[in-house]
Amino acid sequence: MRPATFVRQRLGLPLSLVGCIAAGLVPCIAALAVLALLALDPYRRPPRPDGMVLRLAIGEVDFPEQHVSVVPAPGGRPAFRIRNRWNGEERMEVLEVAFPSGESRVVPPPEDAASPVPAPPLDLDGDGVLDHVRIGPDLFERTVDVVSGATGAVIFSDRDRFEHARKERAFPLGDLDGDGYDELALVHPREDRNAYDLEPGDALFGVHGWVTVVSGGRLGR
What is the share, in percent, of the chain residues with pLDDT greater than 70? Predict the structure, then answer.
């Protein structure tokens, strides 16, 4: 029995109507496939670097006017601050995040908001020897490597393979939880590409950046 005859006999439908239904389904399936591809675009996928213990969504990062940095909270508390600053303006937004719970609150910006905050030294593998952060030079990919100060081996690597990945996106935080291994914050900036290019997925599903925190004690787990 031919498939078309089987469909007509089972459903009691004329072949012309079956053809119309099939013809209508094809564009619907194609449209759903396109939407699925747009939704699964890696540009909007949450990052998951090795050793990650915390991930926070931040707003869209508008380049080159906007700069996001991460610094330890003052007073030696187990927390860090995400600083969101606009170039050429005094305005700065500061979000303080408790570690490792991720509970956050908005705090007033410092009086010297324009002054850089010195980064603490980094001992990511907890061997007592300071490690070194190395940033890749690529225009559209910012590679962050942490090199062991004792052996010279790369003990951590992360790649942000997208437009607008800034050189300043790795921020040592010290040992926030007192386990003997330092933490490292990574900024994963994202911008609405549909504002300057044809990227309908960004317009349909939205886009925002991320801040992740990596702990040396969880590398390789």
Answer: 69
